[in-house]
Amino acid sequence: MPFIRPNPNAKSNNKIMSGVTLWAQAEKMMQIALLLPSAAVIGWLAGAWADMHLHTKWIGPVGIVFGGISGLVCAVRMALSAGKDSSNDADSGSGTGTGNSDDSHE
User: Fold this and answer.
1) Domain locations along the chain
2) What is the pLDDT of residues 46-102, one digit of tens each?
3) Which of 40, 27, 36, 37 is nearest to 82 (CA)?
4) 26-40: string of b/e by CB count within 10 Å (b at 16+)?
5) Residue 71, Cβ density class (10 Å: 0-12 exposed, 13-18 middle, ≥19 buried)
């Protein structure tokens, strides 16, 4: 069985992974940016439908407000979770362990 040498360009894989991670983070931010207006539009459409069937005129604006508030709450939650994910990735580091306080017990 032949010996397979390790890849000397192992750092290029890290560049690829960081690029994929960047695209994933960009997708999360675009999702957050599109969430608020789409929630307001969905609330408006639901309110307009309810206005049409219930013969009122006040449910449409309430639907816009309700959709905007719910979209804002969801967007803030997503932004906070994205911030936690990126801070966990930055804290993980390379794992070399220099300066570890557990090693200094003597």
Assistant:
1) 32-85
2) 999 999 999 999 999 999 999 999 999 998 998 888 777 766 665 555 445 454 455
3) 27
4) eebeeebeebbeebb
5) buried
